[in-house]
Protein backbone atom coordinates (compact mmCIF):
# COMPACT_ATOMS: atom_id res chain seq x y z
CA UNK A 1 0.00 0.00 0.00
CA UNK A 2 1.26 3.50 -0.81
CA UNK A 3 1.64 5.61 2.34
CA UNK A 4 0.47 9.17 1.82
CA UNK A 5 -0.30 10.27 5.37
CA UNK A 6 1.04 9.40 8.82
CA UNK A 7 0.62 10.32 12.46
CA UNK A 8 3.65 10.17 14.77
CA UNK A 9 3.04 10.27 18.52
CA UNK A 10 6.28 10.89 20.43
CA UNK A 11 8.34 13.46 18.54
CA UNK A 12 11.70 12.53 20.05
CA UNK A 13 14.79 11.09 18.36
CA UNK A 14 13.05 8.13 16.71
CA UNK A 15 9.62 9.66 16.01
CA UNK A 16 11.10 12.80 14.46
CA UNK A 17 13.64 10.79 12.43
CA UNK A 18 10.82 8.65 11.00
CA UNK A 19 8.76 11.77 10.29
CA UNK A 20 11.70 13.47 8.53
CA UNK A 21 12.31 10.38 6.39
CA UNK A 22 8.59 10.23 5.46
CA UNK A 23 8.53 13.94 4.64
CA UNK A 24 11.35 13.33 2.13
CA UNK A 25 8.89 11.06 0.27
CA UNK A 26 6.13 13.69 0.35
CA UNK A 27 4.14 11.91 3.09
CA UNK A 28 1.86 14.25 5.05
CA UNK A 29 2.83 13.92 8.74
CA UNK A 30 0.88 15.01 11.84
CA UNK A 31 2.91 15.06 15.06
CA UNK A 32 2.05 14.86 18.76
CA UNK A 33 4.11 14.81 21.94
CA UNK A 34 3.28 15.23 25.63
CA UNK A 35 6.18 17.72 25.77
CA UNK A 36 5.18 20.92 23.91
CA UNK A 37 8.85 21.97 23.49
CA UNK A 38 9.71 18.69 21.72
CA UNK A 39 6.67 19.06 19.46
CA UNK A 40 7.57 22.66 18.59
CA UNK A 41 11.17 21.75 17.71
CA UNK A 42 10.14 18.73 15.62
CA UNK A 43 7.70 20.92 13.64
CA UNK A 44 10.35 23.62 13.21
CA UNK A 45 12.72 21.00 11.80
CA UNK A 46 10.14 20.29 9.08
CA UNK A 47 9.06 16.89 10.45
CA UNK A 48 5.34 17.70 10.19
CA UNK A 49 2.51 19.78 11.61
CA UNK A 50 0.86 19.48 15.03
CA UNK A 51 -1.92 16.89 15.32
CA UNK A 52 -5.29 18.35 16.35
CA UNK A 53 -7.01 17.26 19.58
CA UNK A 54 -10.17 15.71 18.18
CA UNK A 55 -10.85 12.38 16.49
CA UNK A 56 -9.24 11.99 13.06
CA UNK A 57 -11.60 13.16 10.33
CA UNK A 58 -9.65 11.19 7.73
CA UNK A 59 -7.71 8.36 9.37
CA UNK A 60 -4.06 8.51 8.32
CA UNK A 61 -2.59 5.54 6.46
CA UNK A 62 -0.39 4.69 9.44
CA UNK A 63 0.23 5.91 13.01
CA UNK A 64 3.59 5.40 14.71
CA UNK A 65 3.77 5.35 18.50
CA UNK A 66 7.34 6.48 19.24
CA UNK A 67 7.07 6.95 23.00
CA UNK A 68 9.14 5.13 25.69
CA UNK A 69 8.25 1.40 26.02
CA UNK A 70 6.20 1.78 29.23
CA UNK A 71 4.01 4.48 27.63
CA UNK A 72 3.30 2.57 24.39
CA UNK A 73 0.20 0.54 25.48
CA UNK A 74 -1.75 3.55 26.84
CA UNK A 75 -0.81 5.79 23.91
CA UNK A 76 -1.69 3.05 21.42
CA UNK A 77 -5.07 2.50 23.05
CA UNK A 78 -5.76 6.24 22.95
CA UNK A 79 -4.85 6.74 19.27
CA UNK A 80 -6.81 3.63 18.30
CA UNK A 81 -9.85 4.89 20.26
CA UNK A 82 -9.57 8.21 18.40
CA UNK A 83 -9.44 6.33 15.07
CA UNK A 84 -6.38 8.31 13.99
CA UNK A 85 -5.14 5.76 11.45
CA UNK A 86 -5.93 2.58 9.58
CA UNK A 87 -2.77 0.83 10.76
CA UNK A 88 -0.70 1.28 13.94
CA UNK A 89 2.86 0.43 14.86
CA UNK A 90 5.32 1.23 17.63
CA UNK A 91 9.11 1.45 17.76
CA UNK A 92 9.82 0.25 21.30
CA UNK A 93 13.13 -1.56 21.75
CA UNK A 94 11.38 -4.52 23.42
CA UNK A 95 8.45 -6.34 21.92
CA UNK A 96 6.99 -9.22 23.98
CA UNK A 97 6.40 -7.35 27.27
CA UNK A 98 4.98 -4.31 25.47
CA UNK A 99 2.67 -6.56 23.44
CA UNK A 100 1.39 -8.27 26.61
CA UNK A 101 0.70 -4.86 28.18
CA UNK A 102 -1.02 -3.69 24.95
CA UNK A 103 -3.36 -6.71 25.14
CA UNK A 104 -4.06 -5.89 28.79
CA UNK A 105 -4.81 -2.25 27.82
CA UNK A 106 -7.46 -3.52 25.36
CA UNK A 107 -5.65 -2.45 22.16
CA UNK A 108 -6.89 -3.73 18.80
CA UNK A 109 -4.34 -6.31 17.67
CA UNK A 110 -5.65 -6.66 14.08
CA UNK A 111 -4.42 -3.20 13.12
CA UNK A 112 -1.31 -3.16 15.34
CA UNK A 113 2.05 -4.31 13.99
CA UNK A 114 4.76 -4.14 16.69
CA UNK A 115 7.97 -2.76 15.20
CA UNK A 116 11.55 -1.87 16.12
CA UNK A 117 13.88 0.08 13.84
CA UNK A 118 17.52 -0.91 14.49
CA UNK A 119 18.91 2.57 14.04
CA UNK A 120 19.39 5.01 16.86
CA UNK A 121 21.75 7.10 18.85
CA UNK A 122 22.97 7.74 22.38
CA UNK A 123 21.34 11.18 22.06
CA UNK A 124 17.63 11.74 22.51
CA UNK A 125 15.06 14.37 21.60
CA UNK A 126 14.08 15.79 18.20
CA UNK A 127 17.28 17.88 18.04
CA UNK A 128 19.29 14.70 17.41
CA UNK A 129 16.88 13.39 14.74
CA UNK A 130 17.99 12.77 11.17
CA UNK A 131 16.15 11.57 8.09
CA UNK A 132 18.90 9.02 7.31
CA UNK A 133 18.96 7.40 10.78
CA UNK A 134 17.59 4.08 9.49
CA UNK A 135 19.35 3.87 6.12
CA UNK A 136 20.62 0.34 5.54
CA UNK A 137 19.44 -0.84 8.98
CA UNK A 138 17.13 -3.73 9.81
CA UNK A 139 13.63 -2.91 11.04
CA UNK A 140 12.09 -5.73 13.09
CA UNK A 141 8.38 -6.44 12.62
CA UNK A 142 6.64 -8.76 15.09
CA UNK A 143 3.08 -9.38 13.84
CA UNK A 144 0.96 -11.77 15.91
CA UNK A 145 -1.52 -14.36 14.64
CA UNK A 146 -4.20 -11.66 15.05
CA UNK A 147 -2.43 -9.12 12.82
CA UNK A 148 -4.15 -8.27 9.56
CA UNK A 149 -1.69 -9.13 6.72
CA UNK A 150 -2.51 -5.82 5.01
CA UNK A 151 -1.45 -3.95 8.17
CA UNK A 152 1.86 -5.82 8.24
CA UNK A 153 2.45 -4.93 4.58
CA UNK A 154 1.82 -1.23 5.31
CA UNK A 155 4.33 -1.17 8.17
CA UNK A 156 6.90 -3.01 6.02
CA UNK A 157 6.40 -0.23 3.47
CA UNK A 158 6.93 2.37 6.22
CA UNK A 159 10.27 0.74 7.07
CA UNK A 160 11.29 0.73 3.40
CA UNK A 161 10.36 4.42 3.02
CA UNK A 162 12.78 5.11 5.89
CA UNK A 163 15.51 3.26 3.97
CA UNK A 164 15.47 0.19 6.24
CA UNK A 165 15.09 -3.54 5.52
CA UNK A 166 12.03 -5.08 7.24
CA UNK A 167 12.72 -8.36 9.07
CA UNK A 168 9.73 -10.31 10.42
CA UNK A 169 10.17 -12.41 13.56
CA UNK A 170 8.34 -13.53 16.67
CA UNK A 171 8.31 -11.03 19.59
CA UNK A 172 10.12 -13.36 22.03
CA UNK A 173 12.75 -14.26 19.41
CA UNK A 174 13.20 -10.54 18.79
CA UNK A 175 13.76 -9.87 22.49
CA UNK A 176 16.37 -12.65 22.75
CA UNK A 177 18.13 -11.32 19.64
CA UNK A 178 18.29 -7.70 20.81
CA UNK A 179 19.42 -8.84 24.28
CA UNK A 180 22.53 -10.15 22.48
CA UNK A 181 23.11 -7.37 19.94
CA UNK A 182 21.84 -4.28 21.76
CA UNK A 183 20.69 -4.53 25.39
CA UNK A 184 23.55 -6.53 26.97
CA UNK A 185 26.12 -4.48 24.98
CA UNK A 186 24.54 -1.36 26.45
CA UNK A 187 24.94 -2.63 30.01
CA UNK A 188 28.50 -3.78 29.27
CA UNK A 189 29.33 -0.32 27.84
CA UNK A 190 27.87 1.27 31.00
CA UNK A 191 30.02 -1.00 33.18
CA UNK A 192 33.17 0.04 31.31
CA UNK A 193 32.13 3.72 31.36
CA UNK A 194 31.31 3.57 35.09
CA UNK A 195 34.95 2.55 35.73
CA UNK A 196 35.99 5.93 34.32
CA UNK A 197 34.56 7.56 37.46
CA UNK A 198 37.64 6.14 39.22
CA UNK A 199 40.13 7.61 36.71
CA UNK A 200 42.13 10.72 37.58
CA UNK A 201 42.55 13.71 35.24
CA UNK A 202 45.66 12.26 33.59
CA UNK A 203 43.99 8.96 32.82
CA UNK A 204 41.04 10.70 31.22
CA UNK A 205 43.31 13.05 29.25
CA UNK A 206 44.74 9.91 27.64
CA UNK A 207 41.30 8.73 26.47
CA UNK A 208 41.51 7.95 22.76
CA UNK A 209 39.10 6.62 20.18
CA UNK A 210 39.02 3.09 21.64
CA UNK A 211 37.29 4.00 24.87
CA UNK A 212 35.05 6.45 23.03
CA UNK A 213 33.90 3.66 20.67
CA UNK A 214 33.33 1.15 23.47
CA UNK A 215 31.38 3.56 25.70
CA UNK A 216 29.47 5.73 23.19
CA UNK A 217 26.12 4.06 23.86
CA UNK A 218 26.59 4.43 27.63
CA UNK A 219 25.78 8.11 27.00
CA UNK A 220 22.13 7.11 26.38
CA UNK A 221 19.23 8.23 28.60
CA UNK A 222 19.36 6.09 31.81
CA UNK A 223 15.58 6.36 32.38
CA UNK A 224 14.80 5.08 28.88
CA UNK A 225 17.34 2.24 29.19
CA UNK A 226 16.08 1.23 32.63
CA UNK A 227 12.63 0.86 31.04
CA UNK A 228 13.99 -1.15 28.12
CA UNK A 229 15.90 -3.52 30.45
CA UNK A 230 12.91 -3.88 32.80
CA UNK A 231 10.98 -5.30 29.83
CA UNK A 232 13.71 -7.79 28.79
CA UNK A 233 15.16 -9.05 32.07
CA UNK A 234 15.73 -12.79 31.48
CA UNK A 235 17.34 -12.66 28.00
CA UNK A 236 19.63 -9.76 28.99
CA UNK A 237 20.65 -11.48 32.25
CA UNK A 238 21.55 -14.64 30.25
CA UNK A 239 23.94 -12.72 28.00
CA UNK A 240 25.42 -10.68 30.86
CA UNK A 241 26.17 -13.87 32.85
CA UNK A 242 28.05 -15.30 29.86
CA UNK A 243 29.99 -12.04 29.38
CA UNK A 244 30.74 -11.86 33.12
CA UNK A 245 32.05 -15.45 33.04
CA UNK A 246 34.42 -14.58 30.17
CA UNK A 247 35.62 -11.47 32.03
CA UNK A 248 36.12 -13.37 35.30
CA UNK A 249 38.16 -16.05 33.52
CA UNK A 250 40.27 -13.40 31.81
CA UNK A 251 40.90 -11.59 35.10
CA UNK A 252 41.90 -14.85 36.83
CA UNK A 253 44.30 -15.69 34.02
CA UNK A 254 45.88 -12.24 34.17
CA UNK A 255 46.30 -12.51 37.98
CA UNK A 256 47.96 -15.86 37.51
CA UNK A 257 50.12 -14.20 34.85
CA UNK A 258 49.18 -16.79 32.27
CA UNK A 259 48.25 -14.14 29.70
CA UNK A 260 48.61 -16.47 26.67
CA UNK A 261 45.52 -18.60 27.20
CA UNK A 262 42.66 -18.21 27.90
CA UNK A 263 42.92 -14.42 27.43
CA UNK A 264 44.28 -15.03 23.96
CA UNK A 265 41.35 -17.38 23.35
CA UNK A 266 38.89 -14.66 24.36
CA UNK A 267 40.59 -12.12 22.08
CA UNK A 268 40.40 -14.59 19.16
CA UNK A 269 36.73 -15.34 19.83
CA UNK A 270 36.05 -11.62 20.16
CA UNK A 271 37.57 -10.90 16.80
CA UNK A 272 35.56 -13.67 15.16
CA UNK A 273 32.37 -12.39 16.82
CA UNK A 274 33.07 -8.87 15.60
CA UNK A 275 33.53 -10.17 12.06
CA UNK A 276 30.02 -11.66 12.18
CA UNK A 277 28.37 -8.21 12.33
CA UNK A 278 26.92 -7.86 8.83
CA UNK A 279 28.90 -5.30 6.85
CA UNK A 280 25.89 -3.84 5.15
CA UNK A 281 23.89 -3.07 8.26
CA UNK A 282 26.94 -2.25 10.33
CA UNK A 283 28.29 0.12 7.72
CA UNK A 284 28.48 3.85 8.29
CA UNK A 285 24.97 5.05 7.70
CA UNK A 286 25.81 8.56 6.61
CA UNK A 287 25.31 8.98 2.88
CA UNK A 288 28.33 9.64 0.75
CA UNK A 289 29.52 12.83 2.39
CA UNK A 290 33.13 13.87 2.05
CA UNK A 291 34.76 15.19 5.21
CA UNK A 292 37.01 18.26 5.15
CA UNK A 293 39.11 18.73 8.31
CA UNK A 294 39.81 22.42 9.04
CA UNK A 295 42.09 23.56 11.86
CA UNK A 296 40.37 26.17 14.05
CA UNK A 297 42.08 28.33 16.69
CA UNK A 298 40.68 28.13 20.22
CA UNK A 299 39.52 31.76 20.33
CA UNK A 300 36.22 33.66 20.38
CA UNK A 301 34.21 33.60 17.14
CA UNK A 302 36.58 31.22 15.31
CA UNK A 303 33.57 29.08 14.32
CA UNK A 304 31.61 32.18 13.31
CA UNK A 305 34.44 33.20 10.96
CA UNK A 306 34.71 29.67 9.58
CA UNK A 307 30.96 29.49 8.85
CA UNK A 308 31.07 32.93 7.22
CA UNK A 309 33.90 31.70 4.95
CA UNK A 310 31.93 28.53 4.12
CA UNK A 311 28.90 30.71 3.35
CA UNK A 312 31.01 32.93 1.06
CA UNK A 313 32.13 29.78 -0.77
CA UNK A 314 28.43 28.97 -1.39
CA UNK A 315 28.74 25.41 -0.06
CA UNK A 316 26.13 23.67 2.12
CA UNK A 317 27.59 21.93 5.18
CA UNK A 318 25.59 18.71 5.80
CA UNK A 319 27.13 17.95 9.19
CA UNK A 320 29.89 19.17 11.47
CA UNK A 321 31.95 17.58 14.24
CA UNK A 322 34.50 19.40 16.34
CA UNK A 323 37.45 17.54 17.80
CA UNK A 324 39.29 19.46 20.47
CA UNK A 325 41.83 18.16 22.98
CA UNK A 326 41.99 19.96 26.31
CA UNK A 327 44.98 22.28 26.64
CA UNK A 328 45.65 22.51 22.89
CA UNK A 329 45.40 26.00 21.32
CA UNK A 330 43.65 24.59 18.22
CA UNK A 331 40.91 22.13 17.37
CA UNK A 332 39.71 20.49 14.18
CA UNK A 333 36.30 21.11 12.62
CA UNK A 334 35.27 18.16 10.45
CA UNK A 335 32.94 19.57 7.79
CA UNK A 336 30.78 16.99 5.96
CA UNK A 337 29.80 18.13 2.46
CA UNK A 338 28.62 16.54 -0.77
CA UNK A 339 31.71 15.04 -2.46
CA UNK A 340 31.44 17.29 -5.52
CA UNK A 341 31.65 20.40 -3.31
CA UNK A 342 34.80 19.34 -1.47
CA UNK A 343 37.51 20.60 -3.87
CA UNK A 344 35.84 24.02 -4.27
CA UNK A 345 35.34 24.39 -0.52
CA UNK A 346 38.91 23.33 0.27
CA UNK A 347 40.26 25.86 -2.26
CA UNK A 348 37.98 28.69 -1.06
CA UNK A 349 38.90 28.15 2.61
CA UNK A 350 42.62 27.82 1.86
CA UNK A 351 42.45 31.10 -0.16
CA UNK A 352 40.99 32.78 2.93
CA UNK A 353 43.87 31.55 5.09
CA UNK A 354 42.30 28.49 6.73
CA UNK A 355 44.44 25.41 7.28
CA UNK A 356 42.51 22.67 5.43
CA UNK A 357 43.45 18.98 5.17
CA UNK A 358 41.32 17.37 2.46
N1 LIG B 1 17.21 5.74 21.13
C1 LIG B 1 17.39 4.75 20.29
O1 LIG B 1 18.49 4.52 19.83
C2 LIG B 1 16.20 3.91 19.89
C3 LIG B 1 16.30 3.12 18.75
C4 LIG B 1 15.20 2.37 18.33
C5 LIG B 1 14.03 2.41 19.08
N2 LIG B 1 13.97 3.18 20.21
C6 LIG B 1 12.68 3.23 20.92
O2 LIG B 1 12.05 4.41 20.47
C7 LIG B 1 11.20 4.94 21.47
C8 LIG B 1 11.49 6.42 21.64
O3 LIG B 1 12.84 6.58 21.98
P1 LIG B 1 13.65 7.92 21.62
O4 LIG B 1 15.08 7.54 21.65
O5 LIG B 1 13.04 8.57 20.43
O6 LIG B 1 13.35 8.77 22.91
P2 LIG B 1 13.14 10.35 23.05
O7 LIG B 1 13.24 10.64 24.51
O8 LIG B 1 14.04 11.07 22.12
O9 LIG B 1 11.65 10.56 22.57
C9 LIG B 1 10.51 10.08 23.24
C10 LIG B 1 9.43 11.14 23.11
O10 LIG B 1 8.20 10.59 23.56
C11 LIG B 1 7.52 11.61 24.25
N3 LIG B 1 6.51 10.99 25.12
C12 LIG B 1 6.70 10.33 26.28
N4 LIG B 1 5.53 9.88 26.76
C13 LIG B 1 4.57 10.30 25.87
C14 LIG B 1 3.16 10.15 25.82
N5 LIG B 1 2.49 9.50 26.77
N6 LIG B 1 2.50 10.70 24.77
C15 LIG B 1 3.18 11.37 23.80
N7 LIG B 1 4.51 11.53 23.81
C16 LIG B 1 5.19 10.98 24.82
C17 LIG B 1 8.61 12.36 25.00
O11 LIG B 1 8.18 13.64 25.40
C18 LIG B 1 9.71 12.38 23.97
O12 LIG B 1 9.66 13.54 23.16
C19 LIG B 1 11.42 4.09 22.70
O13 LIG B 1 10.37 3.18 22.82
C20 LIG B 1 12.73 3.37 22.42
O14 LIG B 1 12.76 2.12 23.05
C21 LIG B 1 15.02 3.95 20.62
O1 LIG C 1 23.17 4.21 19.34
C1 LIG C 1 23.11 3.53 18.34
O2 LIG C 1 23.92 3.63 17.46
C2 LIG C 1 22.02 2.57 18.09
O3 LIG C 1 21.87 2.09 17.01
C3 LIG C 1 21.14 2.25 19.17
C4 LIG C 1 20.42 0.93 19.26
C5 LIG C 1 21.36 -0.27 19.11
O4 LIG C 1 21.73 -0.85 20.13
O5 LIG C 1 21.69 -0.65 18.01
C6 LIG C 1 19.86 1.03 20.61
C7 LIG C 1 18.63 0.72 20.93
C8 LIG C 1 17.63 0.52 19.94
O6 LIG C 1 16.52 -0.09 20.34
C9 LIG C 1 18.10 0.36 18.60
C10 LIG C 1 19.34 0.76 18.26
Automatic annotation (TrEMBL):
The keyword Nucleotide-binding does not apply. Its EC number is 1.3.1.12. Pathway: Amino-acid biosynthesis; L-tyrosine biosynthesis; (4-hydroxyphenyl)pyruvate from prephenate (NAD(+) route): step 1/1. Keywords: Amino-acid biosynthesis, Aromatic amino acid biosynthesis, NAD, Oxidoreductase, Tyrosine biosynthesis. Residues 291-358 form the ACT domain. GO terms for molecular function: NAD+ binding; prephenate dehydrogenase (NAD+) activity; prephenate dehydrogenase (NADP+) activity. PROSITE patterns: ACT (PS51671), PDH_ADH (PS51176). The keyword NAD applies. Residues 4-285 form the Prephenate/arogenate dehydrogenase domain. CDD domains: ACT. It is an enzyme of class 1 (oxidoreductase). GO terms for biological process: tyrosine biosynthetic process. It catalyses: prephenate + NAD(+) = 3-(4-hydroxyphenyl)pyruvate + CO2 + NADH. Belongs to the prephenate/arogenate dehydrogenase family. This is Prephenate dehydrogenase. The lineage of its organism: Bacteria, Bacillati, Actinomycetota, Actinomycetes, Streptosporangiales.
Amino acid sequence: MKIESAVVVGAGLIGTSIALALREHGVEVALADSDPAALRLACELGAGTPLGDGPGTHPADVAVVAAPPGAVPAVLREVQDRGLAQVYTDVASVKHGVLVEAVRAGCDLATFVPGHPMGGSERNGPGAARADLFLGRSWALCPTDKTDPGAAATVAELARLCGAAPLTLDARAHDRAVALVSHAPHVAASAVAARLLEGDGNALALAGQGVRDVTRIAGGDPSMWAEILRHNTGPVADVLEAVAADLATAAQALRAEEGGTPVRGLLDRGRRGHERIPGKHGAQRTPDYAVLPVVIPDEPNALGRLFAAVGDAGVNVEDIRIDHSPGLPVGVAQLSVLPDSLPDLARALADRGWSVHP
